[in-house]
Amino acid sequence: MADKIPVTVLTGYLGAGKTTLLNRILTEPHGQRFAVIVNEFGEVGIDNDLVVGADEEVFEMNNGCICCTVRGDLIRILDGLMKRKGKFDAIIVETTGLADPAPVAQTFFMDQDVSDKTKLDAVVTVADAKWLTDRLKDAPEAKNQIAFADVIILNKIDLVSPEELAEVEGRIRAVNPYAMLHKAERAAVDISQVLGRNAFDLERVLELEPAFLEDDGHHHDHDHDHACGPDCDHDHHHHHGGLKHYHDEDMQSVALTIDGEVDPDKFLPWVNDLVQREGPNILRSKGILAFRDEPRRFVFQGVHMILDGDLQREWKPGEERRSKIVFIGRNLDKEAIREGFLACTA
Ligand SMILES: Nc1nc2c(ncn2[C@@H]2O[C@H](COP(=O)(O)OP(=O)(O)OP(=O)(O)O)[C@@H](O)[C@H]2O)c(=O)[nH]1
């Protein structure tokens, strides 16, 4: 029992601040070695490139949403990690913003090999103080992420008034009165509040989801294409241990790559204009770009119409200068976005 490796599952809706928190954990002088598993939405890996830290090993899972591929990729990666036990002290799993944390957490109880060697330490949910109130109304994933949390980081408090903060806190407490709650800006929390909590509470989860430990619930209530996108090869009839598995049907991702440079004078006006016009529909945008004649990588990301971008580290020798962008949202005009982006080619 004692030497089971603790696993922290990091969730939170799109753009809430999961990567910000992860980077904080990885850069703080904690003397621990982590293995990090990052699951992304969309076939172009970007989050992995945004995670700092030289020593950590980062494993990407791009072929679908973690809550769907949970019996496959996640177990395989964990099994692989277990074979190299001793090389790290803890595992952190960062899920996509659209993942349902329940089937992810379930893996640590249902799969024998995994549960023999690991223990779920806590489900940590990062919540966006500005947008969570809205998302609790329209995104069932956001609600599940709050409901399943052992620790909640209420992030981006700089963007709201004290009244709004009190409102969103009340909404969180209505869904989950038990979790530890920390308010933060840029996910600045003491990492001892996040890791090594020994907080995952099976009793409480069984109250929430009596079928949590049953493996044949067949309650999976949809079989349509969902947010994992056309490339997700999971079985939509697959059941997740009797848990209702929520996904937003009209959520899509558009991921595009140009095998080369883009012209900043074309790209910047185009992307700014796009998020201004489509901001309400675009939940998340990210990109890493090779600007013409620029030795550094331009990295941008945004939530709705707010974009954040700057020149970061230099392209490494031998690293391919490619430009990739990802948009996640509703009713996105993929073709128009594709044409617009390709027109920015340098
Ligand atoms: N104003 C403000 N911005 C923040 C704060 N924390 C993070 N951000 C910004 O919010 C954006 C999203 O942060 P990320 O950490 O990438 O969010 P995420 O949850 O990993 O996003 P996904 O992986 O796409 O779901 C970035 O542009 C951050 O710089 C905060 O406390 N205040």
From TrEMBL:
Keywords: Chaperone, Hydrolase, Nucleotide-binding
Catalyzed reactions: GTP + H2O = GDP + phosphate + H(+)
Keyword presence, Isomerase: no
Keyword Protease: no
Domain CobW C-terminal: 251-345
Pfam families: cobW (PF02492), CobW_C (PF07683)
Family from the record: Belongs to the SIMIBI class G3E GTPase family. ZNG1 subfamily.
Task performed by this protein: Zinc chaperone that directly transfers zinc cofactor to target proteins, thereby activating them. Zinc is transferred from the CXCC motif in the GTPase domain to the zinc binding site in target proteins in a process requiring GTP hydrolysis.
Record-given protein name: GTPase, G3E family
